[in-house]
Design goal:
The chain is built from 5 helices and 7 strands. It holds the Pfam family DUF4916. This is NUDIX hydrolase family protein. It comes from Nonomuraea antimicrobica.
C-alpha cells in the first residue's frame, strides 16, 4: 500500500476552512498601498471599493490569508497583484517588517478589529506601489486619497471591520496622520 502525503497544500476545501476558522486563528496580511514622492514621503493612499457579503459597499485595504508554506513576502506580493493588478510594481523590502499586528475577533468589541467569520491575526504593512494599478478580483475600484482625505471621517465611515483604525495607524507610522 502506497501512502502519498501532500507536504505543501495551498488551500483548504471550503468545509475544512470553516472548521479551522471555528477553532484557531488564521494568519493574514494587510497591505496599505501608497504612492510616495522622490523623497519617500507618502502622498496618496490607495483604497479598494468592495461589496461586502451583506451587500453594502465598503472601502478596504489589500488583505488576504497567508498560505501554508508561503513566505510573508510572497503572500504580500500575491495579494497586491490579485487586487491591484500585475503591473502595480510594489516595493517590498527584502526583510519586510509590519507596522503593527491586528487581531480580528468574531466577537465585536474585543479589539478595534472585527471579522464575524473568524479569529484572525494580520501582519500589516505599508507598501509603496509605482506602477499602474487596476483593481481585479472582487474589487470594484481603486481610489487614491491624500493622507488627509483617507483619515477624514467621510472615508473612515466607509471602512468596515476596523480597517479605518488600521489605516490611521499606517498613516501615523509614516508620519502622515493629519
Amino acid at each position: 500500500m502506497t501512502e502519498k502525503t501532500e507536504t505543501t497544500p495551498a488551500w483548504l476545501a471550503p468545509e475544512e476552512l470553516e472548521s479551522v476558522r471555528g477553532r484557531m486563528p488564521i494568519l493574514y496580511v494587510d497591505a496599505v498601498p501608497v504612492r510616495v514622492d522622490e523623497t519617500g514621503v507618502v502622498t496618496h493612499v490607495g483604497l479598494l471599493l468592495r461589496i461586502l457579503s451583506d451587500g453594502t459597499v465598503s472601502r478596504a485595504l489589500v488583505s488576504g490569508r497567508v498560505l501554508h508554506h508561503e513566505r510573508i513576502r510572497d503572500a504580500l506580493l500575491r495579494h497586491l497583484e490579485k487586487d491591484l493588478g500585475p503591473v502595480a510594481l510594489p516595493h517590498i523590502p527584502a526583510a519586510p517588517q509590519p507596522f503593527t499586528v491586528a487581531e480580528y475577533f468574531p466577537t465585536a468589541g474585543v479589539t478595534p478589529y472585527h471579522d464575524p467569520r473568524q479569529h484572525a491575526v494580520s501582519l500589516a504593512y505599508v507598501v509603496p506601489v509605482a506602477g499602474d494599478c487596476r483593481p481585479r478580483q472582487d474589487a470594484l475600484d481603486l481610489v487614491w486619497f491624500t493622507p488627509e482625505e483617507a483619515a477624514s471621517p467621510l472615508v473612515q465611515q466607509d471602512m468596515a471591520g476596523g480597517q479605518g483604525v488600521l489605516l490611521k495607524q499606517a498613516l501615523a507610522h509614516v508620519g502622515r496622520l493629519p
